[in-house]
Design goal:
Elements: H1 8-38, H2 51-66, H3 71-96, H4 106-136, H5 151-162, H6 171-198, H7 206-236, E1 239-240, E2 243-244, H8 249-260, H9 269-298
Helix pairs in contact: 1-3, 1-9, 3-4, 4-6, 6-7, 7-8, 7-9
């Protein structure tokens, strides 16, 4: 019953804050992943041979601060997307749990994750578009850069220069990616946590959260990368002579396979997992610890654990 006493606004706030805290650590990997997904676009020569080459190139050209390009957009994305998806997921998770506290089954968790992800993705798409553009800007020649000062400037300029719907460009693949990511991430995290607990070698603590998160991050990376590369290229595309570079997500995927090969759909796997693995770990660790703190120090439930996922 103690879990039900946590107000829904608090659940949403804890979800967003946990994602924002994790982003502070993994923003460089997000930038590298985006650069590698855009490398070789349009049949051009690949800019980055591998993750280490990408890191070295960015550090030499843009310095350490270049690794954190788009941080403000990354934080806004977490404040919108993660706040919404984790808040909705934890609320639905508790609603679907049995009166005796037994969590819902794996299939139900996957459906809950997909529902939460779709809503969160729609809310977070404007920040996502700004993030893709800001992290990609440094790879362009000076004359072609957008040079957004911060996420607020990016959103205002997109609205003024390209229209309202630009803020939701790529919303369909973004929402599709969110369905895949959340079904995989949230459900596999919950399932991994339960499975590890059942071995008898783990208890409800940070070690359990770490290993469950790493398993979840690997599953999520493999499942979501093809949709993610379509989303990245659509949101970064320009209009040439009044025509968009791509007609849609299917066109992106078809062109990538034809010109770059099937395995290009998983281009940037290492930085993607290096980003999503630690981000998953840190998000869930922060989430569990904040939940525990709130229950123990605000609700006065001295023996309460994080829970809720």
């Amino acid at each position: 019953m103690g879990e039900a006493q946590m107000p829904k606004p608090v659940r949403f706030a804890i979800g967003g804050l946990s994602g924002m805290a994790a982003t502070l650590f993994v923003q460089p990997m997000d930038l590298i992943k985006n650069r590698m997904q855009l490398s070789g676009e349009g049949g051009k020569a690949k800019e980055h041979r591998n993750t280490l080459h990408a890191i070295r190139s960015i550090m030499l050209k843009e310095g350490i601060s270049g690794m954190y390009s788009g941080l403000s957009a990354g934080l806004l994305r977490q404040a919108t997307y993660t706040t919404t998806r984790l808040g909705i997921y934890t609320w639905l998770f508790d609603s679907m749990s049995s009166p005796d506290g037994k969590p819902p089954g794996f299939a139900t968790k996957a459906v809950l994750g997909m529902a939460a992800g779709v809503v969160g993705a729609f809310v977070g798409t404007p920040a996502e578009v700004a993030l893709i553009r800001m992290t990609a800007d440094g790879r362009l020649p000076e004359a072609d850069r957008r040079n957004y000062k911060h996420v607020g400037d990016a959103l205002v300029r997109m609205l003024r220069e390209e229209g309202l719907f630009t803020l939701w460009r790529g919303a369909i693949p973004t929402m599709a990616r969110a369905m895949v990511v959340n079904a995989a991430q949230l459900a596999s995290y919950s399932q991994a946590k339960q499975s590890l607990m059942s071995t008898g070698y783990f208890s409800e603590n940070v070690v359990l959260h770490f290993w469950a998160s790493m398993i979840s991050g690997l599953v999520t990376t493999a499942a979501s990368m093809p949709v993610d590369i379509a989303k990245t290229r659509l949101q970064n595309m320009r209009f040439i002579d009044g025509k968009p570079e791509y007609k849609g997500a299917v066109d992106v995927l078809g062109r990538v396979v034809r010109t770059e090969g099937i395995f290009a759909l998983w281009k940037g796997f290492t930085p993607y997992y290096a980003r999503i693995g630690p981000h998953t770990v840190l998000t869930f660790i922060f989430l569990e610890q904040m939940n525990t703190f709130y229950k123990q120090h605000i609700l006065g439930l001295k023996n309460a654990k994080g829970g809720g996922i």
